[in-house]
Fold EF-hand domain-containing protein.
Amino acid sequence: MGQCAACCSGSDAVGVAETPFYGAGARQAPPAGVAEIERRNQLLDRFEPTDVQLLRQRFVEAKGDADALSRQAFTSLFELEDMPKEAREAAFRMFDVDGSGQISFREFCWAMGVCVLSGSDERLRLIFDLFDFDKDGQLPKAPRKAQAPLR
C-alpha cells in the first residue's frame, strides 16, 4: 500500500477490509463504500515519506496525551475558532470518517490527502460543502454589515 502503510502504521494500520466500517464493530456505513476508501488510500499513497513524518508530528503534537484528536484539538490545530460553528462541525465530520467523535491518524491522513492531493474541482467541492449548512446546494448569504455612506 505504499505510503499509506507508512502513514497509518501502528494502531491505525488497517486495510480496506479491516476498517471500522465493516464487521460487528462498525459504527456507520462508509459515505461511498469500499470505492471511496480505496480512493482515499490511493491519495495516501501519493504522500512522500517526509510528508508522512510531518503529518505524524503535527498530529501527535495536537492530540497531546489522547489517543486521537478531539474536537477542541482539531479546532486549535487548524485555527478554526473564528469560523461559524456549522463550518467547524462540517470540517470535523469530514475528518471523522467513522463517526467516533475523534479523529484517528488514518482519518487525519485521509482528510489531509483530500485537502492537498486531490484536484482543484474536488477541493472546491469540499470548501463549498463546508459552508452549505442545510445541504441545499446553495451558500447562505453573508449578513450585511453596516457601511458608512460613500462621500
In short: The radius of gyration is 17 Å. DSSP finds seven helices and no strands in the chain. Residues 34-131 form a domain with the Recoverin; domain 1 fold (CATH 1.10.238.10).
